Amino acid sequence: MLKSQVEGTKCPVARVSHLTAAQLPSDTHTLAEQAAIRPGGSGEGPLMPFRKSVMSKRITGLALLWISALMTLLGASQAHAFSVIQQYYVPLPETQLRSSFLTLASGTGTTFQTIVSITVAVPGTVVIYDNWEDGYETDINNPVQSSTKIWGDGNNANGIAPGYANDPAGLPAGAVLALRNQVTLPRNASTVLYDGRDRIATTKYISVSRAGWADTPGSVLAGSIEMYSTADWGTSFVIPIGENLIYPTPLTSSMFEMTSIFVQAAEDGTVVTVDRDGSGAALPVTTTLGRGEVYYLGSGVQMGATVTATRPVQVGILTGDIGGNYENRWYNIDPVSNWGRSYYSPVGTASNGQQTYVFMYNPDAAPVTVNYVTATGSGTLSIPAKDSARFLMPQNSGASFKGTSGRFDAIATVGATTTQNNVWDWGFSLVPEADLTTMLVNGWGPGSSDLSGNGSPLWVTATKSTRLYVD
Q1: 18-66, pLDDT tens digit by residue?
Q2: Lower Cβ count inside 10 Å, N or C end of the chain?
Q3: Bridge partners of residue 85, in order along the sequence
Protein backbone atom coordinates (compact mmCIF):
# COMPACT_ATOMS: atom_id res chain seq x y z
CA MET A 1 0.00 0.00 0.00
CA LEU A 2 1.27 3.34 -0.91
CA LYS A 3 0.67 6.95 -0.31
CA SER A 4 1.85 10.18 -1.78
CA GLN A 5 1.26 13.85 -1.97
CA VAL A 6 0.24 16.00 -4.92
CA GLU A 7 0.42 19.74 -4.29
CA GLY A 8 -1.39 19.15 -1.05
CA THR A 9 -3.18 16.04 -2.29
CA LYS A 10 -2.24 12.75 -0.75
CA CYS A 11 -2.20 10.05 -3.33
CA PRO A 12 -2.06 6.46 -2.14
CA VAL A 13 -1.87 3.37 -4.16
CA ALA A 14 -3.52 0.08 -3.54
CA ARG A 15 -1.97 -3.23 -2.72
CA VAL A 16 -2.28 -6.08 -5.20
CA SER A 17 -4.07 -8.55 -3.00
CA HIS A 18 -2.26 -11.80 -2.38
CA LEU A 19 -0.55 -11.78 -5.78
CA THR A 20 1.84 -14.66 -6.12
CA ALA A 21 4.30 -15.77 -8.74
CA ALA A 22 2.03 -18.70 -9.55
CA GLN A 23 -0.65 -16.26 -10.68
CA LEU A 24 1.66 -14.47 -13.13
CA PRO A 25 3.18 -15.45 -16.48
CA SER A 26 5.96 -17.98 -16.17
CA ASP A 27 8.58 -15.58 -17.51
CA THR A 28 7.82 -12.83 -15.01
CA HIS A 29 10.80 -11.38 -13.13
CA THR A 30 10.24 -11.17 -9.39
CA LEU A 31 11.88 -9.31 -6.56
CA ALA A 32 14.46 -11.41 -4.80
CA GLU A 33 12.84 -10.94 -1.42
CA GLN A 34 9.72 -9.32 -0.06
CA ALA A 35 9.68 -5.55 -0.06
CA ALA A 36 7.57 -2.75 1.36
CA ILE A 37 7.12 0.07 -1.11
CA ARG A 38 5.45 3.42 -0.61
CA PRO A 39 5.05 6.17 -3.18
CA GLY A 40 5.06 9.76 -2.18
CA GLY A 41 5.20 13.30 -3.38
CA SER A 42 2.58 13.08 -6.09
CA GLY A 43 2.59 9.37 -6.75
CA GLU A 44 2.48 6.10 -5.07
CA GLY A 45 2.42 2.43 -5.45
CA PRO A 46 4.45 -0.69 -5.39
CA LEU A 47 6.54 -1.75 -8.28
CA MET A 48 5.53 -4.79 -10.30
CA PRO A 49 8.04 -5.52 -13.05
CA PHE A 50 7.20 -8.03 -15.71
CA ARG A 51 7.79 -9.12 -19.25
CA LYS A 52 4.75 -9.94 -21.30
CA SER A 53 4.23 -13.56 -22.09
CA VAL A 54 3.23 -14.33 -25.68
CA MET A 55 0.71 -17.00 -26.50
CA SER A 56 -0.57 -17.95 -29.92
CA LYS A 57 -3.36 -20.18 -31.07
CA ARG A 58 -4.31 -21.28 -34.54
CA ILE A 59 -7.93 -21.39 -35.46
CA THR A 60 -8.78 -23.42 -38.51
CA GLY A 61 -11.08 -22.20 -41.24
CA LEU A 62 -13.69 -24.68 -40.07
CA ALA A 63 -13.54 -23.28 -36.54
CA LEU A 64 -13.90 -19.75 -37.87
CA LEU A 65 -16.98 -20.75 -39.83
CA TRP A 66 -18.43 -22.39 -36.72
CA ILE A 67 -17.79 -19.28 -34.63
CA SER A 68 -19.36 -17.08 -37.32
CA ALA A 69 -22.48 -19.24 -37.38
CA LEU A 70 -22.69 -19.26 -33.61
CA MET A 71 -22.45 -15.46 -33.45
CA THR A 72 -25.22 -15.21 -36.03
CA LEU A 73 -27.44 -17.38 -33.87
CA LEU A 74 -26.64 -15.62 -30.61
CA GLY A 75 -26.48 -12.08 -31.95
CA ALA A 76 -23.49 -9.77 -31.87
CA SER A 77 -24.78 -8.00 -28.77
CA GLN A 78 -24.83 -11.15 -26.68
CA ALA A 79 -23.30 -10.39 -23.25
CA HIS A 80 -20.03 -12.04 -22.36
CA ALA A 81 -19.59 -14.18 -19.26
CA PHE A 82 -16.54 -13.18 -17.21
CA SER A 83 -14.70 -14.79 -14.32
CA VAL A 84 -14.30 -11.99 -11.81
CA ILE A 85 -11.63 -12.56 -9.16
CA GLN A 86 -11.53 -9.13 -7.46
CA GLN A 87 -14.10 -6.50 -6.56
CA TYR A 88 -13.65 -2.98 -5.18
CA TYR A 89 -16.02 -0.28 -3.98
CA VAL A 90 -14.99 3.37 -4.24
CA PRO A 91 -14.88 4.68 -0.63
CA LEU A 92 -15.52 8.12 0.89
CA PRO A 93 -18.62 9.36 -1.00
CA GLU A 94 -18.32 13.04 -1.86
CA THR A 95 -21.25 14.18 0.30
CA GLN A 96 -19.68 12.66 3.41
CA LEU A 97 -16.19 13.75 2.38
CA ARG A 98 -17.40 17.35 2.14
CA SER A 99 -18.86 17.10 5.65
CA SER A 100 -15.41 16.33 7.04
CA PHE A 101 -13.82 19.02 4.89
CA LEU A 102 -16.34 21.57 6.18
CA THR A 103 -15.27 20.80 9.73
CA LEU A 104 -11.66 21.48 8.76
CA ALA A 105 -12.34 24.46 6.46
CA SER A 106 -15.74 26.14 6.59
CA GLY A 107 -15.43 27.57 3.06
CA THR A 108 -15.29 24.18 1.30
CA GLY A 109 -17.28 24.31 -1.93
CA THR A 110 -19.79 21.92 -3.46
CA THR A 111 -17.95 20.91 -6.65
CA PHE A 112 -15.42 18.10 -6.22
CA GLN A 113 -12.69 16.68 -8.40
CA THR A 114 -12.95 12.91 -8.09
CA ILE A 115 -10.20 10.60 -9.32
CA VAL A 116 -10.25 6.80 -9.52
CA SER A 117 -7.02 5.35 -10.93
CA ILE A 118 -6.85 1.71 -12.01
CA THR A 119 -3.51 0.12 -12.91
CA VAL A 120 -3.41 -3.29 -14.55
CA ALA A 121 -0.93 -5.78 -13.09
CA VAL A 122 -1.41 -8.80 -15.35
CA PRO A 123 -1.83 -8.92 -19.15
CA GLY A 124 -5.21 -9.95 -20.53
CA THR A 125 -7.21 -8.20 -17.81
CA VAL A 126 -10.85 -7.18 -18.24
CA VAL A 127 -12.21 -4.43 -15.94
CA ILE A 128 -15.94 -3.99 -15.31
CA TYR A 129 -17.03 -0.59 -13.95
CA ASP A 130 -20.47 -0.75 -12.31
CA ASN A 131 -21.94 2.66 -11.37
CA TRP A 132 -24.18 2.90 -8.30
CA GLU A 133 -26.68 5.42 -9.70
CA ASP A 134 -28.94 2.92 -11.53
CA GLY A 135 -28.40 0.06 -9.11
CA TYR A 136 -25.66 -2.55 -9.19
CA GLU A 137 -25.44 -5.44 -11.59
CA THR A 138 -27.24 -8.51 -10.26
CA ASP A 139 -24.54 -10.80 -11.67
CA ILE A 140 -21.24 -8.99 -12.15
CA ASN A 141 -19.92 -11.91 -14.22
CA ASN A 142 -22.72 -11.29 -16.72
CA PRO A 143 -23.21 -7.50 -16.79
CA VAL A 144 -26.27 -6.29 -18.73
CA GLN A 145 -26.90 -2.65 -17.73
CA SER A 146 -26.22 -0.01 -20.37
CA SER A 147 -24.36 2.21 -17.88
CA THR A 148 -21.83 -0.51 -17.02
CA LYS A 149 -18.50 -0.13 -18.78
CA ILE A 150 -16.52 -3.20 -19.81
CA TRP A 151 -12.90 -2.42 -20.62
CA GLY A 152 -10.58 -4.98 -22.19
CA ASP A 153 -13.03 -7.32 -23.91
CA GLY A 154 -12.37 -5.86 -27.37
CA ASN A 155 -15.97 -4.66 -27.76
CA ASN A 156 -16.29 -0.90 -28.34
CA ALA A 157 -20.05 -1.06 -27.92
CA ASN A 158 -19.91 -1.71 -24.17
CA GLY A 159 -17.08 0.70 -23.42
CA ILE A 160 -13.67 1.77 -24.66
CA ALA A 161 -10.91 1.72 -22.06
CA PRO A 162 -9.84 5.29 -21.21
CA GLY A 163 -6.74 6.26 -23.19
CA TYR A 164 -7.47 3.87 -26.09
CA ALA A 165 -8.94 4.58 -29.51
CA ASN A 166 -10.48 1.11 -29.55
CA ASP A 167 -11.12 -1.27 -26.70
CA PRO A 168 -8.27 -3.82 -26.54
CA ALA A 169 -8.88 -7.54 -26.38
CA GLY A 170 -7.30 -7.82 -22.95
CA LEU A 171 -5.74 -4.86 -21.14
CA PRO A 172 -1.93 -5.06 -21.10
CA ALA A 173 0.16 -5.09 -17.92
CA GLY A 174 0.95 -1.55 -16.89
CA ALA A 175 -2.17 -0.04 -18.48
CA VAL A 176 -3.47 2.89 -16.43
CA LEU A 177 -7.16 3.78 -16.55
CA ALA A 178 -7.27 7.29 -15.07
CA LEU A 179 -10.87 8.29 -14.34
CA ARG A 180 -11.47 11.92 -13.38
CA ASN A 181 -14.61 14.05 -13.36
CA GLN A 182 -16.35 16.84 -11.50
CA VAL A 183 -18.98 15.84 -8.96
CA THR A 184 -21.43 18.57 -7.99
CA LEU A 185 -23.29 18.33 -4.69
CA PRO A 186 -26.01 17.61 -3.85
CA ARG A 187 -25.75 14.50 -6.02
CA ASN A 188 -28.33 13.97 -8.74
CA ALA A 189 -28.56 10.21 -9.25
CA SER A 190 -29.81 10.69 -12.80
CA THR A 191 -26.30 11.83 -13.73
CA VAL A 192 -23.93 8.88 -13.97
CA LEU A 193 -20.40 9.79 -12.83
CA TYR A 194 -17.23 8.22 -11.49
CA ASP A 195 -17.55 8.74 -7.73
CA GLY A 196 -17.89 7.21 -4.30
CA ARG A 197 -19.91 3.95 -4.03
CA ASP A 198 -19.11 2.73 -7.57
CA ARG A 199 -18.12 -0.93 -7.92
CA ILE A 200 -15.10 -2.17 -9.89
CA ALA A 201 -14.66 -5.81 -10.85
CA THR A 202 -11.73 -7.41 -12.63
CA THR A 203 -10.76 -10.75 -14.11
CA LYS A 204 -7.11 -10.39 -13.00
CA TYR A 205 -5.21 -8.41 -10.39
CA ILE A 206 -5.22 -4.61 -10.41
CA SER A 207 -4.20 -1.72 -8.16
CA VAL A 208 -6.78 0.98 -7.47
CA SER A 209 -6.50 4.45 -5.88
CA ARG A 210 -9.12 7.02 -5.00
CA ALA A 211 -8.37 10.74 -4.62
CA GLY A 212 -10.38 13.93 -4.38
CA TRP A 213 -10.69 17.56 -3.41
CA ALA A 214 -13.16 20.42 -3.69
CA ASP A 215 -12.52 23.11 -6.30
CA THR A 216 -12.72 25.51 -3.35
CA PRO A 217 -10.24 25.70 -1.64
CA GLY A 218 -8.56 23.41 -4.17
CA SER A 219 -5.98 20.65 -3.84
CA VAL A 220 -4.44 22.20 -0.72
CA LEU A 221 -7.27 20.35 1.07
CA ALA A 222 -7.18 16.95 -0.58
CA GLY A 223 -6.32 13.36 -0.02
CA SER A 224 -6.14 9.92 -1.50
CA ILE A 225 -6.44 6.36 -0.36
CA GLU A 226 -5.51 2.93 -1.60
CA MET A 227 -8.59 0.82 -2.24
CA TYR A 228 -8.76 -2.68 -0.80
CA SER A 229 -10.26 -5.60 -2.68
CA THR A 230 -13.29 -7.05 -0.89
CA ALA A 231 -11.11 -10.10 -0.19
CA ASP A 232 -9.20 -7.89 2.28
CA TRP A 233 -12.30 -6.59 4.08
CA GLY A 234 -13.37 -7.90 7.49
CA THR A 235 -15.98 -7.93 10.23
CA SER A 236 -14.03 -6.61 13.26
CA PHE A 237 -11.97 -3.43 13.43
CA VAL A 238 -10.22 -1.35 16.08
CA ILE A 239 -9.30 2.24 15.23
CA PRO A 240 -5.60 2.83 16.12
CA ILE A 241 -5.78 6.65 16.34
CA GLY A 242 -8.46 9.14 17.33
CA GLU A 243 -9.32 12.49 18.81
CA ASN A 244 -8.05 11.46 22.26
CA LEU A 245 -4.57 10.89 20.79
CA ILE A 246 -3.33 14.46 21.07
CA TYR A 247 -0.20 15.21 19.06
CA PRO A 248 1.15 17.79 18.86
CA THR A 249 -0.33 19.50 21.89
CA PRO A 250 -2.62 21.23 22.63
CA LEU A 251 -5.72 19.55 21.19
CA THR A 252 -6.36 22.53 18.92
CA SER A 253 -3.05 21.77 17.16
CA SER A 254 -3.40 18.00 17.06
CA MET A 255 -3.19 16.09 13.77
CA PHE A 256 -6.13 14.01 15.01
CA GLU A 257 -8.31 16.82 16.39
CA MET A 258 -11.04 15.67 14.00
CA THR A 259 -11.30 11.97 13.23
CA SER A 260 -14.07 10.79 10.88
CA ILE A 261 -14.96 7.20 10.11
CA PHE A 262 -16.44 5.67 6.93
CA VAL A 263 -17.81 2.10 6.97
CA GLN A 264 -18.82 0.60 3.61
CA ALA A 265 -20.69 -2.63 2.90
CA ALA A 266 -20.46 -4.96 -0.09
CA GLU A 267 -23.65 -6.91 0.61
CA ASP A 268 -27.25 -6.00 1.30
CA GLY A 269 -28.40 -6.51 4.87
CA THR A 270 -25.01 -5.87 6.49
CA VAL A 271 -25.55 -4.92 10.15
CA VAL A 272 -22.82 -2.59 11.43
CA THR A 273 -22.15 -1.53 15.01
CA VAL A 274 -19.82 1.40 15.71
CA ASP A 275 -18.59 2.14 19.23
CA ARG A 276 -16.90 5.50 18.86
CA ASP A 277 -14.98 5.34 22.13
CA GLY A 278 -14.33 1.62 22.48
CA SER A 279 -16.80 0.64 25.20
CA GLY A 280 -16.59 4.04 26.86
CA ALA A 281 -19.41 6.36 27.87
CA ALA A 282 -20.85 6.74 24.37
CA LEU A 283 -23.47 4.20 23.40
CA PRO A 284 -22.73 2.12 20.28
CA VAL A 285 -24.66 2.88 17.11
CA THR A 286 -26.10 0.01 15.07
CA THR A 287 -27.32 0.40 11.51
CA THR A 288 -28.07 -1.79 8.48
CA LEU A 289 -26.33 -1.07 5.16
CA GLY A 290 -27.10 -2.10 1.61
CA ARG A 291 -24.53 -2.96 -1.03
CA GLY A 292 -22.13 -0.05 -1.52
CA GLU A 293 -23.72 2.08 1.22
CA VAL A 294 -21.54 3.91 3.73
CA TYR A 295 -22.13 4.68 7.41
CA TYR A 296 -20.41 7.95 8.27
CA LEU A 297 -19.47 9.38 11.67
CA GLY A 298 -17.93 12.82 11.20
CA SER A 299 -16.30 13.36 14.58
CA GLY A 300 -15.94 12.05 18.10
CA VAL A 301 -14.03 8.92 17.06
CA GLN A 302 -11.57 7.93 19.78
CA MET A 303 -8.45 5.78 19.68
CA GLY A 304 -9.67 2.26 20.42
CA ALA A 305 -13.08 2.76 18.78
CA THR A 306 -14.51 -0.45 17.37
CA VAL A 307 -16.47 -1.45 14.28
CA THR A 308 -18.16 -4.84 13.99
CA ALA A 309 -20.28 -6.13 11.13
CA THR A 310 -22.28 -9.21 10.27
CA ARG A 311 -20.71 -9.29 6.79
CA PRO A 312 -17.40 -7.98 5.47
CA VAL A 313 -16.98 -4.19 5.32
CA GLN A 314 -14.16 -1.76 4.60
CA VAL A 315 -13.30 0.97 7.10
CA GLY A 316 -11.54 4.24 6.34
CA ILE A 317 -10.76 7.23 8.51
CA LEU A 318 -9.98 10.86 7.76
CA THR A 319 -8.07 12.89 10.32
CA GLY A 320 -7.24 16.57 10.48
CA ASP A 321 -6.48 19.70 12.46
CA ILE A 322 -9.56 21.95 12.59
CA GLY A 323 -8.71 25.36 11.18
CA GLY A 324 -5.14 24.12 10.63
CA ASN A 325 -4.75 25.49 7.11
CA TYR A 326 -6.04 22.32 5.43
CA GLU A 327 -4.07 19.64 7.29
CA ASN A 328 -5.69 16.23 6.76
CA ARG A 329 -4.72 12.59 6.20
CA TRP A 330 -6.65 9.57 4.88
CA TYR A 331 -6.21 5.96 6.02
CA ASN A 332 -7.59 2.53 5.26
CA ILE A 333 -7.90 0.45 8.42
CA ASP A 334 -7.10 -3.26 8.36
CA PRO A 335 -9.48 -5.66 10.09
CA VAL A 336 -8.12 -7.09 13.33
CA SER A 337 -7.80 -10.48 11.65
CA ASN A 338 -5.12 -8.98 9.36
CA TRP A 339 -3.04 -7.36 12.11
CA GLY A 340 0.45 -8.69 12.69
CA ARG A 341 3.46 -8.64 15.01
CA SER A 342 5.88 -7.35 12.40
CA TYR A 343 5.71 -4.27 10.15
CA TYR A 344 8.01 -2.33 7.85
CA SER A 345 7.90 1.36 6.96
CA PRO A 346 9.84 2.50 3.87
CA VAL A 347 9.24 6.23 4.52
CA GLY A 348 11.60 8.08 6.84
CA THR A 349 11.98 11.69 7.87
CA ALA A 350 12.88 13.69 4.77
CA SER A 351 16.32 15.14 4.16
CA ASN A 352 14.83 18.63 4.59
CA GLY A 353 13.71 17.74 8.11
CA GLN A 354 10.02 17.12 7.40
CA GLN A 355 9.29 14.50 10.04
CA THR A 356 7.60 11.12 9.71
CA TYR A 357 6.10 9.45 12.76
CA VAL A 358 4.83 5.90 13.17
CA PHE A 359 1.99 5.43 15.68
CA MET A 360 1.54 1.86 16.97
CA TYR A 361 -1.63 0.83 18.81
CA ASN A 362 -1.94 -2.05 21.28
CA PRO A 363 -5.53 -3.27 21.90
CA ASP A 364 -4.57 -5.75 24.62
CA ALA A 365 -4.68 -5.48 28.41
CA ALA A 366 -0.90 -5.94 28.74
CA PRO A 367 1.96 -3.87 27.26
CA VAL A 368 3.61 -5.02 24.02
CA THR A 369 7.37 -4.81 23.57
CA VAL A 370 8.53 -3.87 20.07
CA ASN A 371 12.07 -4.20 18.72
CA TYR A 372 12.90 -1.74 15.95
CA VAL A 373 15.74 -1.55 13.43
CA THR A 374 16.59 1.41 11.19
CA ALA A 375 19.52 2.35 8.97
CA THR A 376 21.01 4.26 11.90
CA GLY A 377 20.48 1.89 14.81
CA SER A 378 18.15 -0.33 16.77
CA GLY A 379 16.31 -0.37 20.06
CA THR A 380 13.20 -1.32 21.98
CA LEU A 381 9.97 0.49 22.74
CA SER A 382 6.88 -0.44 24.70
CA ILE A 383 3.28 0.08 23.63
CA PRO A 384 1.16 0.51 26.78
CA ALA A 385 -2.00 -1.52 27.22
CA LYS A 386 -4.90 -0.15 25.14
CA ASP A 387 -2.75 2.79 24.14
CA SER A 388 -0.29 3.91 21.48
CA ALA A 389 3.43 4.55 21.13
CA ARG A 390 4.97 7.16 18.82
CA PHE A 391 8.23 6.60 16.93
CA LEU A 392 10.11 9.34 15.06
CA MET A 393 11.60 7.90 11.89
CA PRO A 394 15.25 8.83 11.21
CA GLN A 395 16.13 10.78 8.11
CA ASN A 396 16.32 8.85 4.84
CA SER A 397 15.74 5.50 6.53
CA GLY A 398 13.14 2.78 6.57
CA ALA A 399 12.41 0.77 9.70
CA SER A 400 11.19 -2.61 10.89
CA PHE A 401 9.01 -3.05 13.99
CA LYS A 402 8.73 -6.53 15.48
CA GLY A 403 6.62 -7.23 18.54
CA THR A 404 7.60 -9.91 21.02
CA SER A 405 4.00 -10.74 21.94
CA GLY A 406 0.52 -9.79 20.84
CA ARG A 407 -0.54 -8.19 17.59
CA PHE A 408 -0.70 -4.46 17.05
CA ASP A 409 -1.61 -1.98 14.32
CA ALA A 410 0.48 0.87 12.90
CA ILE A 411 -0.06 4.02 10.84
CA ALA A 412 2.37 6.71 9.68
CA THR A 413 2.03 10.49 9.51
CA VAL A 414 4.32 12.08 6.93
CA GLY A 415 5.17 15.78 6.82
CA ALA A 416 4.37 15.86 10.53
CA THR A 417 6.88 18.41 11.80
CA THR A 418 4.93 20.09 14.59
CA THR A 419 5.43 23.61 13.23
CA GLN A 420 4.77 22.70 9.58
CA ASN A 421 2.47 19.67 9.60
CA ASN A 422 -0.01 21.20 7.15
CA VAL A 423 2.42 21.63 4.24
CA TRP A 424 3.41 18.12 3.10
CA ASP A 425 0.79 16.26 5.12
CA TRP A 426 -0.11 12.73 4.12
CA GLY A 427 -0.21 9.34 5.76
CA PHE A 428 -0.50 5.61 5.25
CA SER A 429 -1.27 2.40 7.09
CA LEU A 430 1.69 0.07 7.50
CA VAL A 431 1.29 -3.36 5.94
CA PRO A 432 1.95 -6.42 8.14
CA GLU A 433 5.05 -8.33 7.06
CA ALA A 434 2.93 -11.40 6.31
CA ASP A 435 1.12 -9.39 3.60
CA LEU A 436 4.22 -8.07 1.86
CA THR A 437 4.72 -9.37 -1.64
CA THR A 438 7.46 -9.77 -4.22
CA MET A 439 5.15 -8.32 -6.89
CA LEU A 440 4.06 -4.71 -6.64
CA VAL A 441 2.48 -2.18 -8.99
CA ASN A 442 2.29 1.61 -8.75
CA GLY A 443 -1.38 2.56 -8.81
CA TRP A 444 -1.17 6.31 -9.38
CA GLY A 445 1.61 8.82 -9.98
CA PRO A 446 0.17 12.04 -11.43
CA GLY A 447 3.12 14.25 -10.49
CA SER A 448 0.81 17.07 -9.45
CA SER A 449 -2.91 17.76 -9.21
CA ASP A 450 -2.91 19.43 -12.66
CA LEU A 451 -0.43 16.92 -14.16
CA SER A 452 2.10 19.70 -14.83
CA GLY A 453 4.72 18.61 -12.29
CA ASN A 454 6.87 15.55 -11.68
CA GLY A 455 6.68 14.99 -7.96
CA SER A 456 5.90 11.32 -7.49
CA PRO A 457 8.73 9.66 -5.56
CA LEU A 458 8.69 6.06 -4.36
CA TRP A 459 10.19 4.70 -1.15
CA VAL A 460 11.33 1.08 -1.03
CA THR A 461 12.58 -0.99 1.88
CA ALA A 462 13.23 -4.73 1.90
CA THR A 463 13.04 -7.42 4.55
CA LYS A 464 16.36 -8.93 3.37
CA SER A 465 19.13 -8.23 0.89
CA THR A 466 17.14 -7.75 -2.29
CA ARG A 467 17.54 -7.15 -6.00
CA LEU A 468 14.81 -4.87 -7.38
CA TYR A 469 13.54 -5.10 -10.94
CA VAL A 470 11.81 -1.90 -12.03
CA ASP A 471 9.84 -1.79 -15.28
Answers
A1: 333 333 333 332 233 455 656 654 333 333 322 223 223 322 333 333 3
A2: C
A3: none
